[in-house]
């Protein structure tokens, strides 16, 4: 089971727990922020893996499972039960019969099967394919060898069978927004891209590009009495300064805090109690393209790790709002190896490795980055002189966050800096480096290693939880040795929440992603 490491700042515990002591109030408006760029990528959530887009998608859509932050695991959402057979590979789902799409039509097994087949369209490179691929026959659809996923079988309108290729918990594969269930009769229409239809507690009202998305309560939502709020407004605020002003002026209810704001809010008596924190399952890193000759040699990749004073950057630039990364799996992972030590800061060793690899005078590369203050341009700017000391010259290529996401998926880079989900399931997280995983899905460094593949494959077929964890730790150690990335940090997510917003969940998979049907505002909220 996924293990949460939650750290709550000051009075933040009371802020989150207060909902338990009060009766939720009906009505009002929740004003959330989308802090990770200047726009939303798409209103088709199946096409985008950005955390920015999933903020609105958590209100508009629903997947087969949902993340339960209290239990620290996915739980059934669109199904009432899952009967396991076939040696742990066959799952028979009995769907709930009270889930209605926002066009008024009841969801059936056909919608789920249609959605998963759509995600596996190999010509589209949908990011959710990394998860659906665990279903038998899904890869054949992706490769154009079949039209439908053979491992999906409709039993009746509210029952379907899913046969997997690995002995894994499907909850860890079908809980996030990029596997949201669409209405099969509507999603193929052009109008769906302008006015999406979901199963979530709120229905779409409007999208003002570069500004906001507005959603209203769906009165036929299948959870009695929910949602509590009448409306949700998700405003695009990529600039930390803009969020700070808006939060202080009580114009927004939530605001993600960067390193500088984190320190400022902790030292402000009026704001300290608004801060909540959680150790997220995200790894920040610099990815290296093995098609660029120097990065094809693991000694060069290791030299990058030795050349950077990572602890100094975390302490001085990130202001301690992070945890030092060792390998890929974060502290909150069940397969995290406490005995593993991070790469030391050792410029002399970096120079020796470069010389051994045939680059005694170093080399030059292009580094693609966004402006993100926690893992983007400020970090790159601090790293450049460290690399320069060992002879490596980096040229910065700055792009918008939305553009960076596509650059990463397409492989059109020499190096990039990014933040990627590395949980909650270690098997799924490490599968991103399996040679069978396409670059467009999540194998962004196009990593290929036979030893690693074997360990992941064995873990996927193991019935023994302890053995599976051991195999995954070994695979994680292979990544440490091969160093396809500079291992930077595991994120500590920090968000300021106005005192009138109740029911906030410490979601370690992404703090901004809230099960919004459980949120409510009291009568002190200025937004009516």
Automatic annotation (TrEMBL):
Q: Where in the cell is it found?
A: Periplasm
* Gene3D superfamilies linked to this entry: Dipeptide-binding Protein, Domain 3 (3.10.105.10), Periplasmic binding protein-like II (3.40.190.10)
Principal subcellular localisation of the protein: periplasm
Arranged from A to Z, the UniProt key words for this protein are: Signal
UniProt KW Cell division keyword: no
Any Pfam family hit: SBP_bac_5
Query: InterPro entries annotated for this entry?
Result: Peptide/Ni-bd, SBP_5, SBP_5_dom
Q: Where is the Solute-binding protein family domain?
A: 73-438
Keyword Signal present in the record's keywords: the answer is yes
Which residues belong to the signal peptide in this entry? 1-21
Q: Which family does it belong to?
A: Belongs to the bacterial solute-binding protein 5 family.
This protein is called what? ABC transporter substrate-binding protein
Protein species of origin: Bradyrhizobium canariense
């Amino acid at each position: 089971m996924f293990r949460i490491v939650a750290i709550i700042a000051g009075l933040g515990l009371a802020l989150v727990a207060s909902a338990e002591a009060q009766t939720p109030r009906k009505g009002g408006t929740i004003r959330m922020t989308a802090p990770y760029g200047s726009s939303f990528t798409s209103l088709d959530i199946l096409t985008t893996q950005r955390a920015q887009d999933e903020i609105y998608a958590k209100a508009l859509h629903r997947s087969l499972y949902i993340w339960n932050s209290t239990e620290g695991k996915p739980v059934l959402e669109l199904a009432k039960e899952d009967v396991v057979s076939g040696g742990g590979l066959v799952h028979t789902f009995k769907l709930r019969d009270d889930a209605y799409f926002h066009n008024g039509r009841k969801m059936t097994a056909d919608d789920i099967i249609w959605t998963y087949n759509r995600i596996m369209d190999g010509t589209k490179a949908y990011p959710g394919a990394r998860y659906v691929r665990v279903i038998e026959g899904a890869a054949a659809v992706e490769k154009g060898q079949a039209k439908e996923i053979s491992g999906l079988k409709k039993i009746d309108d509210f029952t379907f069978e899913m046969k997997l290729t690995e002995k894994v918990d499907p909850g860890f594969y079908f809980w996030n927004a990029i596997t949201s269930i669409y209405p099969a009769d509507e999603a193929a229409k052009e109008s769906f891209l302008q006015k999406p239809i979901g199963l979530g507690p709120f229905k779409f009202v409007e999208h003002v590009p570069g500004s906001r998305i507005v959603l209203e309560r769906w009165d036929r939502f299948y959870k009695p009495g929910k949602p509590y709020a009448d409306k949700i407004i998700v405003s695009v605020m990529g600039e930390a300064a803009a969020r700070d002003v808006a939060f202080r002026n009580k114009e927004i209810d939530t605001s993600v805090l960067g390193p500088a704001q984190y320190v400022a809010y902790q030292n402000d008596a009026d704001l300290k109690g608004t801060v909540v924190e959680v150790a997220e399952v995200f790894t920040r890193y610099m990815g290296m393209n093995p098609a660029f000759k120097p990065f094809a040699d693991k000694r060069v990749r290791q030299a990058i790790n030795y050349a950077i004073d990572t602890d100094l950057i975390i302490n001085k630039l990130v202001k301690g709002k992070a945890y030092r990364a060792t390998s890929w799996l974060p502290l909150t992972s069940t397969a995290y190896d406490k005995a593993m030590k991070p790469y030391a800061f050792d410029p002399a060793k970096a120079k020796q490795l470069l010389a051994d690899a045939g680059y005694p005078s170093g080399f030059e590369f292009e580094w693609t980055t966004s402006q993100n203050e926690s893992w983007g341009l400020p970090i790159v700017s601090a790293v450049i002189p460290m690399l320069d000391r060992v002879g490596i010259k980096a040229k910065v290529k700055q792009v918008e966050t939305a553009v960076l996401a596509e650059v990463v998926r397409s492989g059109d880079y020499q190096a990039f800096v990014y933040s990627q989900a590395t949980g909650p399931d270690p098997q799924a997280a490490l599968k991103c480096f399996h040679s069978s995983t396409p670059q467009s899905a999540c194998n962004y460094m196009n990593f290929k290693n036979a030893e690693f593949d074997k360990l992941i494959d064995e873990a996927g077929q193991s019935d023994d939880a302890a053995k599976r964890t051991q195999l995954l730790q070994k695979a994680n150690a292979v990544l440490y040795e091969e160093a396809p990335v500079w291992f930077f940090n595991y994120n500590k997510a920090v968000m300021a929440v106005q005192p009138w917003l109740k029911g906030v969940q410490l979601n370690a998979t992404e703090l901004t992603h809230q099960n919004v049907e459980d949120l409510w505002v009291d009568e002190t909220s200025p937004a009516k």
